[in-house]
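Methods, example record. To illustrate the input and output format used throughout this study, we show the complete record for AAA family ATPase. The sequence lines were provided to the predictor; the line carrying structure tokens was produced by it.
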Amino acid sequence: MNLEERILQRKRRGDRRQLVLEEASLSPVWHSPEPTGRGPTIERLLDRLEPVFEHRTPENVYVHGPAGSGKSAVVSALFSQFTRLLSSPEDSIVTTTRGGSADTRSFAYVDLREATSEFEFYHTILDAMTSESIPQRGLSTTDLRTRVSRHLRGGRILVVAMDHADENGTDRLASFAGELESLGHRTSWVAVGRTDPEEVLPDPRATRTVTVEPYHRAELTDLLTARVSTGLTRNATTHQQLRRLAAWADGDAHDALAALLGAVDIALDDDSGVIEDDHLDAGMESVPRPCIALGRVLTLSENRLTVLRRLVALDATDRSSVGRAASTIASAASLSESTITRYLYEFAESGIVERVPVKETNGAGRPPSRVETRVPTRAFLRLTRGAD
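The corresponding predicted structure is encoded as:
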């Protein structure tokens, strides 16, 4: 390629319309402050929480439904608005001589993917109850629990949203619900999960439920249209493409958005100003079914994310067994092969990867298994750029 051709190629790229305007709105892990297509669910949840508007403690609520049905989107948006419109945080951390003001309300949203310990649980709640920054060090779990309890003196109501409450075992909800009950004040919770209420609730009869159904095709198309309208340039996609994507996703907004973000990533690699049909096809192919939630994957430690990125990039031959995958990754990483092997087994236990037994094998002993990822490949790699 001569110099003139190089310059003209760059000029053509510069003349082409920009594709991405606001990438965050295309991400499966981002929630809009105004959830699309979940109006009835919002109303049912508001009905359950009605007493809090009259400064009374509402009953505990369990919001449940399948993956990608908008449960987290609804609860996180509602609690954000509750905090803005109804909450009255203390101006500073209370002392032993000053309790909370009477007839006030606090709301805390806790993502149990991130708050995995009692310390993190209480730290998140206390941070929501006061306008003062809460240090990460120098305080014990007991200190945090005591300070939360002091804030509740004088009649303050605390409502805590516990998102992804059943994700790492159904006993987690009972554990954290017990922590709130142990405070001995006017507390209640809204838990979010996929598990059937009878299997996860500490006391099903004492808990109200809100069931969230999968998105209808038209609702999911509207959601995708709303995301594209802010995330991409005008006419970057067609309505027919979004309808086809909604039909393929079968009511799962996470998978639809993962495929869309994957298609955008592929289009950018092609220096395209629009999403072509083959980009969309490749984006959908990059999302395995079943698929692990990207929000869950992104809570992994830095080293684990690096290993997973390199695993995703391996070809089928290098993923033909756990040992081969670990060896290949270790050859270009600072981690030992044994550490990487341990990570791969952890991934398998948590559903991030699947170990598929190799049918044709000779020799004695346990047959090897190839490693198949459950991660939306292109979306994951785009969201974790710079992790290596």
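Annotations derived from this record:
The chain has three domains: 39-211, 215-285, 294-383.
The radius of gyration is 24 Å.
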